[in-house]
Amino acid sequence: MASLTSKELSAIEDQLSGEKLLITKLKAYSQGCSDPQLKQQYEDLACKHQQHYNKLLGFLN
């Protein structure tokens, strides 16, 4: 596998930060939500972004 450039590493770090922020916000929205359908949608989106985060993290390993 080819090494990542500093620009690519920086881009991945930025994406990781964005995904982590989305996960945190979506989990908070889910916890503060009383509508079960909306709560589930927030949880599903948080899970999806957690998968994105994990995949991006895989590029650094």
Explain the overall architecture.
It is built from two helices and no strands. It is elongated, with a radius of gyration of 14 Å. The chain has helices spanning 6-31, 36-60. Helices cover 84% and strands 0% of the residues. Helix 1 (6-31) runs antiparallel to helix 2 (36-60). With 61 residues, the chain is mainly alpha-helical.
Element layout with pairings:
Elements: H1 6-31, H2 36-60
Helix pairs in contact: 1-2
Brief overview, please?
This protein has helices at residues 6-31, 36-60. It is mostly helical and 61 residues long. The longest helix has 26 residues, at 6-31.
- Low-pLDDT stretches are none
- The multimeric state of the shown protein is single chain
What's the helix-strand series? HH
Quote the beta fraction. under 5%
Number of E-state strands: 0
Instruction: Choose one word for the global shape.
Output: elongated
Biggest sheet record: none
Helicity range? over 70%
Class of secondary structure makeup: mainly alpha
Distance between the termini: 11 Å
Number of helices: 2
The overall pLDDT average reads 94
Whole-angstrom Rg = 14 Å
Q: Which features characterize this protein?
A:
mainly alpha, 61 residues, 2 helices
